Amino acid sequence: MLNPYVIATSQHTDPQQAVADIAAQIDQTRLGGLIFFCSAHYPLEALARALNQQFVGCEMAGCTSAGELTHHGYATDSLVVLGLHHDAFIMRSALIQPLSSFDRQQAALLCDQLFPAAGAGFQPLVLSLFDGLSSQEEWVLAALEAELGGIAHCGGSAADDIHLRRTHVFYRGAFHTHAGVVIGLQTCLPFAVFSHHHLRPLHTKLVVTEADPHQRRVYELNGMPAAQAYAELIGQPLEQLSPVDFALHPLAVKRGETYYVRAIQQVNHDASLDFYCAMGKGSVLTQMYAEDLTSGLDEQWRQLEANLGPAAFILACDCVLRRLESEERQQQSQLAAFLRQRPLIGFNTYGEQATGVHLNHTITGFFFGYPRGLIQLT
User: Fold this and answer.
1) Would you give the DSSP letter of residue 118?
2) CA distance 138 to 82
3) Is 189:363 a contact under the CB 8 Å cutoff?
4) Is pLDDT above 90 for 336?
5) pTM of the model
6) What sequence ranges are listed for the domain FIST (predicted)?
């Protein structure tokens, strides 16, 4: 058995040249599917045409990003592609559009479409990619997870280089907004879902006293305009609040013994705050502080290697706020060196998903090992 995948990358800004560069790195006779992540700077219609012309008849899915992850570390303004070989993967995908009307009945039909028949010796998993500005992830995930029946599932929300204007997913040869693409994979490789954040709680609390959860908008914290209360908490002038502040001073809600980060997206003119996750009135937010970006993640991946063997590759959805934090703390070189230790592909997201939960400020994804009895394939 040959290597079960290929990772291809291109820094060409012209879509035709970028796709040609990718195609030169891939043996198309072995392709069982193709997953890609791309900068929102590309002219997307031209990129779609180039992909369709170059990979005729290939099952393809992907989305726009706020940065790309490769086996070289972080990339920007690039196209990164995971080619899945047909002897190790079966790939099917389905479109959810619009996200706002998705329900359990549609979820059941979608799951039947993804897994009509299991391959012998193959296990199923699901990767979901959603429009990251749709504010619909929580409701869609609830319906989808109820029908997956325990099938391993994670994913990420498409981004647009932190412009917060329009994000896209790719399905059946075209880019879509207000949509999600759900990718069903069956594989003979051992795998596991992982999710990690590097944040720990402080004692300071903020209570959501006025909010619209459907818009993910918080109007008041502790009875004050939300942005003003947050600015005072972190000691920053209100008018200077930026995504870097949101990355360095995150907030989280506690469920049981676990803290789930609720990342701020932007400040509005009325001093309300938009979040990347739904926030309801009465929610209690805890101020968090950051530990090293890699220490806990390294431990988690080492444990997976102990269970599954060396990494064949890691498919990762990494919150854009983690990337901003690494840049602000001047840890890019350290983080890139860490990421280069294992075969990695992924993207910087506007939110992550794991087992039906919408997350922020995490790196979440699938860790794939090699088939049992094989250490490394060539």
Assistant:
1) P
2) 27
3) no
4) no
5) 0.94
6) 30-225
